[in-house]
Design brief:
This protein is an alpha+beta fold and 204 residues long. The chain has one helix and twelve strands, in the order αββββββββββββ. The chain has a domain of 138 residues: GSPII I/J protein-like (Pili subunits).
Length: 204
């Protein structure tokens, strides 16, 4: 009578429990990898947004610095022919110009028959800080506004006069008078900004 041959156990194989543990560990590593990848993508998006906002703010500061440094004590005439101050600032109402002045140094690449002066305005309209350019210093058409910043709350201004005194309102004694410096403050997306600009330094 012959005994049935027994099959030896394969010592190199995996049991069902070992396979399940291995799959569980692999799944955990996969989930951790996806979470890390998502975190990296989110961080890149936040960084790109912050860098874009910083670049936008730097362009605004550079442009306003250039405009104000070349401001001139030149009065102008409005559409009715009335002589207006060289530098003015209006408060409150929608679409009002919180800065309005004439600047020099305007390039004339095309060689058009026009002055190198231009009158510029800065406005806050529906949370957008805009710059408007008047092609003619006296009257004339205004170019469409260029949006410099968005999501801006109300703008606060302070002006330094020739006596070195600061005031929240620009008061003039002569139509051709310019402030010595301007402080501009506003809030954007929960962050508070304050910038200080000298006026007319390009021609002193």
């Amino acid at each position: 009578m012959h005994k049935a041959a027994t099959m030896p156990c394969d010592s190199n194989g995996f049991t069902l429990v070992e396979m399940m543990v291995a799959l569980f560990i692999f799944a955990m590593l996969s989930v951790a990898g996806v979470i890390m990848l998502r975190s990296a993508v989110d961080a890149d998006e936040v960084t790109a947004g912050n860098l874009g906002q910083m670049a936008e703010m730097q362009r605004f500061v550079s442009l306003m610095e250039t405009d104000l440094s070349q401001a001139l004590p030149r009065t102008y005439r409005d559409d009715r022919g009335e002589r207006m101050p060289a530098f003015s600032s209006e408060a409150g109402g929608r679409g009002t110009s919180f800065l309005n002045f004439t600047r020099g140094g305007q390039s004339n690449i095309n060689g058009d028959a026009r002055s190198n002066l231009e009158r510029v305005e800065y406005r806050l309209t529906d949370g957008k800080l805009e710059r408007l350019r008047n092609r003619m210093t006296d009257g004339g058409a205004i170019d469409p506004p260029a949006v410099l910043l968005s999501n801006i709350d109300s703008v606060q201004l302070r002006f330094r006069d020739k006596r070195g005194q600061w005031s929240n309102d620009w008061q003039i004694e002569r139509l051709a008078e310019l402030p010595r410096a301007i402080e501009i403050g506003f809030e954007q997306d929960g962050r508070r900004y304050r910038h200080l600009f000298l006026v007319g330094t390009g021609y002193l």
